[in-house]
Design a protein that fits this description.
Elements (H helix, E strand, L loop, with lengths): L6 H21 L2 H9 L4 H4 L14 E6 L7 E4 L5 E3 L5 E3 L5 H12 L6 E7 L4 E6 L6 E4 L6 H7 L7 E10 L9 E5 L1 H6 L14 E6 L1 H8 L5 H8 L13
Parallel strand pairs: 6-10
Antiparallel strand pairs: 1-2, 1-5, 3-4, 6-7, 8-9, 8-10
Length: about 250
Protein backbone atom coordinates (compact mmCIF):
# COMPACT_ATOMS: atom_id res chain seq x y z
CA UNK A 1 0.00 0.00 0.00
CA UNK A 2 1.29 3.44 -0.90
CA UNK A 3 1.72 5.70 2.13
CA UNK A 4 1.82 9.47 1.77
CA UNK A 5 3.18 11.68 4.54
CA UNK A 6 3.73 15.36 5.05
CA UNK A 7 1.85 18.48 4.05
CA UNK A 8 3.90 18.80 0.86
CA UNK A 9 2.75 15.40 -0.36
CA UNK A 10 -0.82 16.27 0.61
CA UNK A 11 -0.59 19.34 -1.58
CA UNK A 12 0.61 17.28 -4.52
CA UNK A 13 -2.10 14.72 -3.82
CA UNK A 14 -4.71 17.48 -3.95
CA UNK A 15 -3.26 18.62 -7.26
CA UNK A 16 -2.85 15.19 -8.82
CA UNK A 17 -6.22 13.67 -7.88
CA UNK A 18 -8.44 15.58 -10.38
CA UNK A 19 -5.70 15.38 -12.98
CA UNK A 20 -5.47 11.62 -12.64
CA UNK A 21 -9.22 11.22 -12.92
CA UNK A 22 -9.32 13.29 -16.11
CA UNK A 23 -6.53 11.28 -17.69
CA UNK A 24 -7.90 7.88 -16.67
CA UNK A 25 -11.00 8.42 -18.82
CA UNK A 26 -8.89 9.23 -21.86
CA UNK A 27 -7.21 5.82 -22.04
CA UNK A 28 -10.22 3.61 -21.41
CA UNK A 29 -11.24 3.23 -25.06
CA UNK A 30 -7.79 3.21 -26.67
CA UNK A 31 -7.25 -0.56 -26.93
CA UNK A 32 -10.65 -1.01 -28.60
CA UNK A 33 -10.00 1.87 -31.01
CA UNK A 34 -6.48 0.64 -31.84
CA UNK A 35 -7.78 -2.82 -32.66
CA UNK A 36 -10.49 -1.33 -34.86
CA UNK A 37 -7.93 0.83 -36.66
CA UNK A 38 -5.65 -2.04 -37.60
CA UNK A 39 -8.42 -4.58 -38.27
CA UNK A 40 -10.66 -2.38 -40.38
CA UNK A 41 -12.73 -4.47 -42.79
CA UNK A 42 -13.78 -1.81 -45.29
CA UNK A 43 -10.40 -1.28 -46.98
CA UNK A 44 -11.02 -3.40 -50.13
CA UNK A 45 -14.18 -1.45 -50.98
CA UNK A 46 -12.67 1.95 -50.21
CA UNK A 47 -9.52 1.20 -52.18
CA UNK A 48 -11.28 -0.07 -55.28
CA UNK A 49 -9.93 1.92 -58.22
CA UNK A 50 -7.39 3.85 -56.12
CA UNK A 51 -4.33 2.43 -57.93
CA UNK A 52 -5.89 3.12 -61.33
CA UNK A 53 -6.39 6.76 -60.36
CA UNK A 54 -2.71 7.28 -59.57
CA UNK A 55 -0.97 9.82 -61.82
CA UNK A 56 2.45 8.64 -62.98
CA UNK A 57 5.60 10.74 -62.77
CA UNK A 58 9.39 10.52 -62.61
CA UNK A 59 10.95 8.35 -61.15
CA UNK A 60 8.07 5.88 -60.73
CA UNK A 61 8.70 2.31 -61.86
CA UNK A 62 6.04 0.72 -64.10
CA UNK A 63 5.69 -3.00 -64.69
CA UNK A 64 4.42 -4.07 -68.13
CA UNK A 65 2.82 -7.30 -69.26
CA UNK A 66 1.99 -7.37 -72.98
CA UNK A 67 0.58 -10.59 -74.40
CA UNK A 68 2.36 -11.65 -77.55
CA UNK A 69 5.23 -9.19 -77.02
CA UNK A 70 7.45 -10.77 -74.34
CA UNK A 71 10.32 -8.42 -75.13
CA UNK A 72 8.23 -5.57 -73.66
CA UNK A 73 7.50 -7.31 -70.38
CA UNK A 74 9.24 -6.14 -67.24
CA UNK A 75 9.89 -2.98 -65.27
CA UNK A 76 10.43 0.44 -66.81
CA UNK A 77 11.47 3.60 -64.99
CA UNK A 78 9.85 6.91 -65.87
CA UNK A 79 12.78 9.13 -66.81
CA UNK A 80 13.15 12.89 -66.18
CA UNK A 81 11.76 13.62 -69.64
CA UNK A 82 8.50 11.91 -68.62
CA UNK A 83 9.03 8.94 -70.93
CA UNK A 84 9.81 5.26 -70.52
CA UNK A 85 11.76 3.08 -72.94
CA UNK A 86 9.92 0.38 -74.93
CA UNK A 87 12.92 -1.39 -76.46
CA UNK A 88 12.72 -1.25 -80.29
CA UNK A 89 9.42 0.66 -80.11
CA UNK A 90 11.16 3.80 -78.90
CA UNK A 91 10.15 5.96 -75.98
CA UNK A 92 6.59 6.48 -74.77
CA UNK A 93 5.55 9.58 -72.83
CA UNK A 94 3.61 8.59 -69.70
CA UNK A 95 4.09 11.44 -67.23
CA UNK A 96 0.80 12.80 -65.95
CA UNK A 97 -1.15 9.77 -67.18
CA UNK A 98 -3.14 7.20 -65.23
CA UNK A 99 -2.63 3.47 -65.62
CA UNK A 100 -5.59 2.73 -67.95
CA UNK A 101 -4.41 5.37 -70.42
CA UNK A 102 -0.83 4.08 -70.26
CA UNK A 103 -2.07 0.55 -70.99
CA UNK A 104 -3.98 1.79 -74.05
CA UNK A 105 -0.95 3.67 -75.36
CA UNK A 106 1.36 0.69 -74.82
CA UNK A 107 -1.10 -1.57 -76.64
CA UNK A 108 -1.37 0.87 -79.54
CA UNK A 109 2.41 1.18 -79.83
CA UNK A 110 2.83 -2.62 -79.64
CA UNK A 111 0.06 -3.28 -82.16
CA UNK A 112 -2.03 -5.50 -79.88
CA UNK A 113 -5.65 -5.21 -78.68
CA UNK A 114 -6.06 -2.93 -75.62
CA UNK A 115 -7.05 -5.81 -73.33
CA UNK A 116 -3.69 -7.52 -73.93
CA UNK A 117 -1.61 -4.82 -72.26
CA UNK A 118 -1.55 -4.59 -68.49
CA UNK A 119 0.40 -2.13 -66.37
CA UNK A 120 0.87 -1.55 -62.67
CA UNK A 121 3.04 0.62 -60.46
CA UNK A 122 5.92 -1.45 -59.12
CA UNK A 123 7.51 1.42 -57.17
CA UNK A 124 5.76 4.61 -56.06
CA UNK A 125 8.60 7.14 -56.12
CA UNK A 126 7.30 10.44 -57.48
CA UNK A 127 4.91 11.71 -54.78
CA UNK A 128 4.74 11.64 -51.00
CA UNK A 129 2.47 12.06 -48.00
CA UNK A 130 3.94 13.54 -44.81
CA UNK A 131 3.16 11.94 -41.43
CA UNK A 132 3.53 14.38 -38.54
CA UNK A 133 3.01 14.08 -34.78
CA UNK A 134 2.04 10.97 -32.84
CA UNK A 135 2.24 8.39 -35.61
CA UNK A 136 3.71 4.90 -35.37
CA UNK A 137 7.49 4.87 -35.68
CA UNK A 138 9.00 8.21 -36.74
CA UNK A 139 7.55 11.29 -38.38
CA UNK A 140 8.35 10.76 -42.03
CA UNK A 141 7.42 10.98 -45.68
CA UNK A 142 5.72 7.91 -47.16
CA UNK A 143 4.86 7.06 -50.75
CA UNK A 144 1.62 8.43 -52.13
CA UNK A 145 -0.24 5.53 -53.78
CA UNK A 146 -3.34 7.22 -55.07
CA UNK A 147 -6.37 8.83 -53.43
CA UNK A 148 -6.64 6.44 -50.49
CA UNK A 149 -8.43 7.57 -47.33
CA UNK A 150 -6.73 8.81 -44.16
CA UNK A 151 -7.80 5.63 -42.37
CA UNK A 152 -6.22 3.40 -45.00
CA UNK A 153 -3.00 5.42 -44.94
CA UNK A 154 -2.75 5.08 -41.15
CA UNK A 155 -3.38 1.35 -41.42
CA UNK A 156 -0.65 0.73 -44.00
CA UNK A 157 1.88 2.87 -42.11
CA UNK A 158 1.40 1.18 -38.73
CA UNK A 159 -1.30 3.22 -36.99
CA UNK A 160 -0.85 5.83 -34.28
CA UNK A 161 1.37 5.91 -31.21
CA UNK A 162 0.33 5.16 -27.65
CA UNK A 163 0.62 8.88 -26.90
CA UNK A 164 -1.73 9.95 -29.71
CA UNK A 165 -5.10 11.66 -29.34
CA UNK A 166 -7.42 9.99 -31.90
CA UNK A 167 -9.78 12.96 -31.85
CA UNK A 168 -6.99 15.31 -32.94
CA UNK A 169 -6.20 14.07 -36.43
CA UNK A 170 -5.98 16.58 -39.26
CA UNK A 171 -5.17 16.67 -42.97
CA UNK A 172 -3.25 19.79 -43.99
CA UNK A 173 -3.33 20.59 -47.70
CA UNK A 174 -1.01 23.37 -48.85
CA UNK A 175 -2.79 24.25 -52.15
CA UNK A 176 0.24 26.37 -53.14
CA UNK A 177 -0.07 25.40 -56.79
CA UNK A 178 -3.69 26.64 -56.75
CA UNK A 179 -2.67 30.01 -55.29
CA UNK A 180 -5.03 29.52 -52.36
CA UNK A 181 -4.44 29.42 -48.58
CA UNK A 182 -3.82 26.05 -46.91
CA UNK A 183 -6.81 23.87 -46.09
CA UNK A 184 -7.08 22.06 -42.75
CA UNK A 185 -9.57 19.18 -42.48
CA UNK A 186 -10.45 17.54 -39.16
CA UNK A 187 -10.58 13.74 -39.26
CA UNK A 188 -12.86 12.29 -36.56
CA UNK A 189 -11.08 8.96 -36.18
CA UNK A 190 -13.27 7.63 -33.31
CA UNK A 191 -16.44 8.35 -35.31
CA UNK A 192 -15.00 6.62 -38.38
CA UNK A 193 -13.95 3.51 -36.48
CA UNK A 194 -16.57 3.16 -33.75
CA UNK A 195 -19.66 4.59 -35.49
CA UNK A 196 -18.83 3.87 -39.15
CA UNK A 197 -19.28 7.58 -39.86
CA UNK A 198 -17.12 8.07 -42.98
CA UNK A 199 -17.85 11.73 -43.57
CA UNK A 200 -14.47 12.94 -42.32
CA UNK A 201 -12.48 10.02 -43.80
CA UNK A 202 -11.15 12.24 -46.59
CA UNK A 203 -9.23 11.00 -49.61
CA UNK A 204 -5.65 12.16 -49.75
CA UNK A 205 -3.86 14.12 -52.45
CA UNK A 206 -0.14 14.19 -53.25
CA UNK A 207 1.96 16.05 -50.68
CA UNK A 208 -0.81 16.28 -48.07
CA UNK A 209 0.31 16.34 -44.43
CA UNK A 210 -1.42 14.06 -41.92
CA UNK A 211 -1.04 15.38 -38.38
CA UNK A 212 -1.86 13.31 -35.27
CA UNK A 213 -1.99 15.29 -32.02
CA UNK A 214 -0.71 14.28 -28.61
CA UNK A 215 -3.08 13.01 -25.92
CA UNK A 216 -3.49 14.77 -22.58
CA UNK A 217 -2.29 11.57 -20.93
CA UNK A 218 1.03 11.74 -22.77
CA UNK A 219 1.53 15.43 -21.95
CA UNK A 220 0.87 14.79 -18.25
CA UNK A 221 3.29 11.85 -18.30
CA UNK A 222 6.10 14.11 -19.44
CA UNK A 223 5.25 16.89 -16.99
CA UNK A 224 5.07 14.87 -13.75
CA UNK A 225 8.46 14.55 -12.02
CA UNK A 226 9.70 10.97 -11.58
CA UNK A 227 9.38 11.08 -7.77
CA UNK A 228 5.65 11.87 -8.06
CA UNK A 229 4.77 9.22 -10.64
CA UNK A 230 4.09 6.45 -8.08
CA UNK A 231 1.57 8.77 -6.37
CA UNK A 232 -0.05 9.67 -9.67
CA UNK A 233 -0.33 6.05 -10.77
CA UNK A 234 -1.69 4.94 -7.41
CA UNK A 235 -4.45 7.57 -7.55
CA UNK A 236 -5.50 7.02 -11.13
CA UNK A 237 -4.94 3.29 -11.39
CA UNK A 238 -3.34 4.32 -14.65
CA UNK A 239 -1.68 1.72 -16.81
CA UNK A 240 -0.65 2.10 -20.40
CA UNK A 241 -2.72 0.10 -22.89
CA UNK A 242 -1.07 -3.15 -23.97
CA UNK A 243 1.26 -2.86 -26.91
CA UNK A 244 -0.29 -3.99 -30.19
CA UNK A 245 1.91 -5.00 -33.09
CA UNK A 246 2.21 -2.05 -35.43
CA UNK A 247 -0.07 0.17 -33.32
CA UNK A 248 1.65 1.48 -30.20
CA UNK A 249 5.20 2.32 -29.44
Amino acid sequence: MLRIRGSGCCFFLFFLFPLALAVAGCVANRPQLDHALMADKGAPVRNEGVAEDYTVGCPDVIELLVEGRPELNGRRTVDPDGCMALETLGRLRVEGLRLPEIARRVAARAGVPPNRARVRIAEFNSQQIYLIGEVADLQRAVAYRGPETVLDLLRRTGGISSGAEPEHVYVIRSRITDGRPPEVVHVDLPAILMKNDQRSNVRLQPFDQVFVGEARQSIVDRCIPPFLRPVYQAISGFRRPPKLDGVTR
